[in-house]
Amino acid sequence: MSAHKPVSRRQFLKGAATLAAAPYVLSTSAWGQTPPSERITLGVIGVGNMGGGHLETLVGNHDFQIVAICDVDRTKRDKARTNVEEAYAAERTDGTYQGCDIYNEFEALLARSDIDAVLIAVPDHWHALIAIAACEAGKDVYCEKPLALTIREAQEMVRAARRYGRVFQTGSQQRSSPEFRKACELVRSGRIGELRTINVGIGGPSREKYLPEEPVPEGFDWERWLGPAPWQPYNAERCSGSYSGGWRLIRDYSGGMMTDWGAHHFDIAQWGMGMDGSGPVEIIPPNVAETNTLTYRYANGVTMYHGGANGILFTGTEGKIEVNRGHFKTWPDRIGQEPLGPNDVHLYESPGHHQDWVNCIRTRRRPICDVAIGASSITVCHLGNIAWWLGRTIRWDPAKREILGDEAAGRWLDRPKRAPWRLHWQ
Amino acid sequence: MKRMLVYLATAVLAVPACRQPPGAGAPAADISRDLSSQSSIERQLDRWLPGMGAANLVERERPQQELEQLCLRAGRPGAESQRTWLCRAMAARLGPEAPGPARVWLLRQLERIGREECVSAVAALLDEGDTEIRDLARRVLQNNPSASAGAALRGALDKADDDPAWQIALINALAARRDPALATPLAELADHPDLAVTKAAIAGLADIGTRRAVDALTAIWRGADQERRRLAAAALVRVADQFVEAGQKPRAASLYAMVYNPAVEEQLRAAALRGLALADPAQAMPLLLESIRGQRDPALQLLAVRLLADSAAPEVTQALAAELPDLPPEVQVVALDALAGRGDRNLKPAVIKTLASDDAGVRIAALEALQVLGDVADIVLLATVAAQSSGAEREAARRSLARMRGESVDEVILADVKGAPPGLRAELIEALRARRFKTALSMFLREACHPDENVRVAALGAIGELGSPEDAGAVLGLLIAAEGDAVRSAAEDAAVALCLRQEEPEHRADPVLDLWPAAGARARASLVSVLGRIGGSTALATIRTARNSEDADVVDAAVRALAQWAATDVLADLLEIVRHSERKAHRVLALEGYIRLLGLPSEREPQDTVALYHRALSLAERPEERKQVLSGLSGVVHADALKVARQCRMDENLRAEADSAVLSIARLVGPWQPAEAEAAIQEVVAQTEDEALHERAEKILDTIRKSAGCILTWALSGPYFLEEDRAGASPAEAWMDVYDTAFPPEQPASTGDELLDWRPLKTTNVYQPWVFDLTQLESGSDRCVYARSAVWSEQARDVRLEVGSDDAVKVWLNDQLVHEFRAVRAHEALQDHVAVCIEAGWNTLLLKVVQAGGGWGFSCALRSPDGEPLSGLLIQAEAPAGP
Predict the structure, then answer these.
(1) Given this model, what pLDDT does residue B406 score?
(2) Do the Cβ atoms of B214 and B243 come closer than 8 Å?
(3) How far is B296 from chain A (nearest CA, A)?
(4) A127-153 pLDDT tens trace
(5) Using CA atoms, how far apart are residues A314 and A337, in angstroms rounded to an integer?
(6) Burial letters for B605-617: b for 16+ Cβ neighbours within 10 Å, e otherwise?
(7) Torsion angle of C-alpha atoms B161, B166, B169, B171, degrees rounded to 10
(8) What's the rounded mean pLDDT across residues B630-659?
């Protein structure tokens, strides 16, 4: 029997630095022997399309206790609280439960010392501000993809997470899917020979939208929804989470499908190349090069094209691998059939994106899609947008994270924020 | 057969000049972008200015986008004169005489390309009464690299005493500029009575990070105000982090050491300790070790372990290893993980010692660590643990063996097999299998004859996984001779795997057939089992022969092989066994197989499938079999299935299953034949008191009612796409060219229908037959299909057309374009609603569904203007011929 005091959940989670990602995967069973006796208390910030989906899943996950919800839409936060409390009530013998508080302002939720972790599923222009504030408040973070609205914001998120030792999972959940991991392992193990090109099948950038003013719905805090973004009159489409035309396609709030889907597919491309933490050196917009498509050149000679794949298509000197959700194909077939050996590349095996976050919260390891990975992947997406919007080739220093020789392009690395918002409040 | 109608772009091909949406960097054709002189720029601006400020948003968009494109071009490297001209011209038009939206747009452009030339004009707006303009001007100056922009912001801050919100805005802008001159005013503002201003000022000092800023923060830190002290401590840690990034580690270390103080809250103290470990490992080491040794507080121990693990100092490794035995189990697990991450093999002895821990988690972590730290000397240890443990511990040991790196690992394992006792021997073979060491195949074949059953099973597994079709004969020989179920099963699995590895399907059964003539009855029974799993015509012929064998075991194996056969070509064989076999066990097996095969996807018409199920029902002797039939029947979309299920309701023993089947079938048939489906559901509901069934029935009825008006039958033409060299300039937007191109189905009837290859569109979603997944028909992007349906109405009427699509869609009603959606999107059933008028008699509905990439599909319905079902409509894929 151990003579040591047991580690309480609160003590365990309130520590500092996370461990660097190890080159192998420690199985969760090592931790399964000493489970914390209490659930991880969770606040969910943003309960729209994505947040609502997370909530539905997490309320059934007994590793968590959802104790707070924040949304600027009163109807949504009320409904979310009802759903959470009804779900918890159903698990209790007396059939009742009250214990999920609701907030309009995320600052009030983050100020609660009894909350261990937050899940952030708000529109992109809010990600960095809330995530950094969460790190500063000592919360572990799951932040929906795309990680940030700008490249500089992403870098600051990495710094904040490291400074305060937070476990920070980026919501690019394809990293937790076996088919994507397998594709990347095969590419990195040389099964298609020398990697030459990658095609990434996603949509284009966001743009300005000209939308008329509409009355702000009762219970909707439009000023808060806009936050650091330039002022615009309310219009339902601006704050709609719909893929058919909401904020995802508007430049003030998002990078469009380039970042929304790029945070998935470019992320896998980076993983397959072994380029986490790095990136391309040259980005050529459509209509400039003979390729007629957005093109990334990497220092290792690999060229990545926007378009031309069902998901991500890796092409090497000896074969091809195409992967997407529910789709895995190799040319020739045998590439995908031969299992990996001990000297092949074995990548981190995540038990599922939420579960990986849970495990890492308990073990303080960096998760499968740690904030630094999310940052380098979203940087690729944003660089593509910048080149596309500017209509000219840009050169990028992935180590210094600077655009070279183009001051005006460099200004697109960040966006001034509407008062009073800033990234750091401490 | 794949249908690819490549449409050659000819005179009818109308590729638009602008291929990209505004704002996506696309040039416009009809407005010039002249940057050749100041005067030409000013002329253009004056022409665009009224439109840029227009109240009408449609009018506003084009000139604003034109200006943006001009600015983006002027901002390119090497165009300094053009940029200056343009910025001067924009700055001169910022006054209040310009319309508000135009001023906003001009400022947003200056935010991206403005420099010295626009500062005075923008700075004047810092006194603007319109707070939106004022804040935008602030942001423009924040981004402006000229020194005068900073001076303008500082000047505004000096005058902002009575407006805390504006002070914060200006502090933020100046701090973002890292303006060193800001340190003194911020130091003063850190004492501001409004805490929000104080917070901004202290955070701003951290942004600046100059010596004066650090002095100011240090002074606050040494002050008496607790909240300000806390803010200053956090700011100092952030400044110190900046020093570390800049390589100024001694400066950083002094700040971290100052903040690492018992008076500081845990979170900040931990951040300071982490920083100190990065900036000055030597200074941090004793603090970390002290935390591990002295406190005996697991949380602090855990923190110290993590920080040590992050440190690059080599001495950390041994220090941590030395502490390992005394750590509590939960911290040991973290420490083992951390030590493995450092990859230092000198740590191995310390790790191996923890394998003796009482705590399973610790033992597992140690085994995992050996995956990295272990070497050939640990092979026997890991294999022994695998042999003697179970569950997660065994898996951890096996995983470490499988992934241990090193050039000689495989050879050492191979050598260790010799002389190893049976349990260890099996694990070593298992390790070579997991490591895919094919060189060991001859050893595996030898070990497949080992006296110990576990060794034989392991060896056969390895052969099955690593062997080639040429090894099949040897394994089949072992199968024939096998004793014991485990070995026989392993041998059969291996034989099947090896035969299936033969690339030519017609030769897969050859190794079995080679042995067949000389095989005795016992051997043949085993061989038939293998044939049953290999499949193919030659295997089937032999199995059929075996059915007539005089040996009961061979016949039994043949019947089992047929019952487990994977394709429907044995239906007749199974039916014959069900009808005529004297052995009840065979009849049962055959009927089970028959029912299973009826459920496989097939080209049979649904009513034929119902007939086959009906026959199975008549042959079923046991209730279980009839229930299996009903279960299969539940997935058939045909009214006959409903009829059979309703008949089964007469049988009291089957009532519950039949009720459920009726509801399931009614749900599938409902959209096609709602009256029949509803009648069947009502019959069930009327005769049961089962609440769950009532609830389910209600949901199904609701679904059926909601499906009224959904169009289920379509004729399809396509896909159509452009030749590669004629497609749009950007492949990423090539789908837009497809969308904009009028392919023959949407042209006036110049092309005969017979050339357009209209064909029925098959249902792709049995539960929502109005939702069509076109990816099941074709793959590839940048293409489109046309879907056509005919709607007959008693009278002309207003209706609501509902359309869903992935991606873009156009809809024509009676040759008139009534709906367009030109964007990439995911399909949501019936997501667009359009008011249209249908005529009396036949109406033609034509959809063009464009595939940009990913998913591809559509849905369509006609309803009343308020979304209710419509009566009096007849919908079919083609209108009847004739007038």
Answers:
(1) 85
(2) no
(3) 7
(4) 999 999 999 999 999 999 999 999 999
(5) 17
(6) ebeebbebbbebb
(7) 0
(8) 91
Evaluate if residue A315 carries a pLDDT over 70: yes
Structural domain of A160: 9-173
Helix (H) or strand (E) holding B322: helix B315-323
| B504/B468 Cα distance (integer angstroms) | 13
Q: Do B340 and A33 touch (CB under 8 A)?
A: no
Whether residue B173 and residue A416 make contact (CB cut-off 8 A), yes or no, is yes
Q: Which residues of B touch A341 (CB under 8 A)?
A: 435-436
Q: B820 forms bridges with which residues in the sheet? A: B810
H or E element: which one contains B197? helix B195-208
Residue B3 has pLDDT above 70, yes or no: no
Q: Across the interface, do B343 and A422 touch by the CB < 8 Å criterion?
A: no
Selecting from A138, A211, A231 the residue whose C-beta is nearest the C-beta of B132 gives A231
Burial A99-122 (b: 16+ CB within 10 A, else e): ebbbbeebeebbeeeebbbbbbbb
- Report which of residues B34 and A43 the model is more confident about: A43
Q: How many CB atoms lie within 10 A of CB B811?
A: 24
**Domain count within chain A:** 1
Contacting B residues, span 706-725, partner chain A, CB-CB under 8 Å: none
pLDDT at residue B6 tops 80: no
Measured CA to CA, the distance from residue B177 to residue B199 in angstroms comes to 18
Q: Is B145 on the interface with A (CB under 8 A)?
A: yes
pLDDT exceeds 90 at position B294: no
For the residues A232-253, what does the mean pLDDT come to? 89
**Is any Cβ of chain B less than 8 angstroms from the Cβ of A405?**
yes
Is the CATH code 2.60.120 the one for domain B715-876? yes
User: Which of B600, B603, B676, B601 lies closest to B638 in space, CA to CA?
Assistant: B676
CA distance B279 to B252: 6
- Top pLDDT among B248 and B675 is at B248
Whole-angstrom distance, CA of residue B511 vs CA of residue B474: 9
Q: Which residue has the tokens 């299936």?
A: B500
**How many angstroms separate the CA atoms of B756 and B669, rounded?**
31
Residues sharing a CB contact under 8 Å with residue A85, sequence separation 6 or more, in sequence order: A97, A98, A99, A100
Quick one: average pLDDT of A275-300? 89
Q: Using CA coordinates, name the residue in chain B closest to A311.
A: B854
Contacts with B57 from chain A: Cβ below 8 Å: 210-212
> Which residues of chain B have a CB within 8 Å of the CB of A420?
165, 168-169, 172, 196, 200
Contact B296 A208 (CB under 8 A): no
Task: Point out which residues pair with A281 in neighbouring strands.
Answer: none
Task: List the single residue in B with minimal CA-CA distance to A15.
Answer: B303
Burial class (CB in 10 A: 0-12, 13-18, 19+), B213: buried
Structure tokens at A184: 């990347």
- Evaluate the CA torsion angle A92, A93, A95, A101 in order and state its sign: negative
Residue A32 in any domain: the answer is yes
Burial of A317 (0-12, 13-18, 19+ CB in 10 A): exposed
Within B343-405, residue ranges assigned H as helices are 348-353, 360-373, 379-388, 391-403
CATH of the domain at A162: 3.40.50.720
Tell me what pLDDT residue A290 has.
63
pLDDT (0 to 100) of residue B16: 30
Query: Do the Cβ atoms of B838 and B791 come closer than 8 Å?
Result: yes
Size of interface A-B (CB pairs under 8 A): 309
Q: Which two tokens stand for residue B876?
A: 């079919």
Which of A287, A290, A324, A370 to mutate against chain B (most B CBs within 10 Å)?
A287
Residue B298 clears pLDDT 70, i.e. is over it: no
